[in-house]
């Protein structure tokens, strides 16, 4: 069996490199979204958003938790990588067939008369690729290949950026070009992950139902948690499609896309914490690491989000143009919820990495129901602003419940999770001095 030894990295190093990657990703994604929104206009932007929302929701369920489960079995070395790879391939073939059938039928009966059939086919074809790179990210996670995963994110940003420039801006393919970019992104990442995983496996396919069942059994709770979280993020767009025009969906998507960019920092942290939790044998140390990282990063997140709330109208007008000014209100209304949900964005990967994904289901089931009810109550009167208010209320409730569940399980106070301590500041200062001394020594 092929093998590749990697030197373990510190949590701080992995978080810094992951966050640096996310900054590059944020910049590329941001510029790409601005260009596409300006070229397509609110209506074209709304069509692309509406077409891809169901595939994204279905993907979160069809994921089956294979990424997290594969990371666990790989990291703990319970099965060989070749055995895990054969099981993952088998699951991928099944989920590809099932998801394309479900989404294809929905497109045919619900959207084929309203939207371009080629755009629908492109969206449908992206599903197997998303599943593939999602599954194989798990094996890289289990090998603690954070650097390789980060490089995959950079590839994603580059494919998106150059795809938008070429297909949307230069060639003028319009909505078809925007949809094609969404197809090329998972294609590029899938090819890259295929090359990376190839260093570990021999690709000798063997159908082992026992291992397939073990991976699915462990992964399904992760999938249910991901599905529930994704519904909380995307259900508003799904409902908006039936209550407002496409241009309003386009305006709403610009606000939500900018709001979600803030999550790049907690996502980067969560990526590292999940990998550390999946491979760690000291659970108490893992908990201390997670809460310390959250305490240190949360003030930074609050400052960034506050700045966005104040500057939202200027940013939207400057970047997207006058036609997208209503998106600024959406962005401002979403920010309090985004701030709150960052807590769960950090703590949930830690819990999942240690094998407790069901806490997300306990925390976010009620908020999802509230989100759906509020969307139907508020959108008819307030339009896209009503959808933003519903999401923020849902996010805040979910974050509060999750933080309380986490604190209760780990026997911590909420302030131990959220409020930065003097010891944290001192530790940051010591780390900064060491790095500064090391840099001066090299120079």
Describe this structure in words.
The structure is a single chain. The chain is mainly alpha-helical and 443 residues long. It has one domain (11-436). Helix content is 86%, strand content 0%. It is built from 15 helices and no strands. The chain has helices spanning 11-62, 66-75, 81-111, 117-142, 146-170, 174-197, 209-243, 246-261, 264-279, 283-320, 326-353, 358-382, 384-410, 414-418, 422-442. The longest helix is centred in the N-terminal third of the chain and has 52 residues, at 11-62. The radius of gyration is 22 Å and the shape is globular. The two termini are 43 Å apart.
Secondary structure elements and pairings:
Blueprint: H1 11-62, H2 66-75, H3 81-111, H4 117-142, H5 146-170, H6 174-197, H7 209-243, H8 246-261, H9 264-279, H10 283-320, H11 326-353, H12 358-382, H13 384-410, H14 414-418, H15 422-442
Helix pairs in contact: 1-3, 1-4, 1-5, 1-6, 1-7, 1-8, 1-9, 2-3, 2-4, 2-7, 3-4, 3-7, 4-6, 5-6, 7-12, 7-13, 8-11, 9-10, 9-11, 10-11, 11-13, 12-13
Summary, kept brief:
This protein has 443 residues and is mainly alpha-helical. It has helices at 11-62, 66-75, 81-111, 117-142, 146-170, 174-197, 209-243, 246-261, 264-279, 283-320, 326-353, 358-382, 384-410, 414-418, 422-442. Helix 5 (146-170) packs antiparallel against helix 6, helix 8 packs across helix 11 and helix 9 runs parallel beside helix 11.
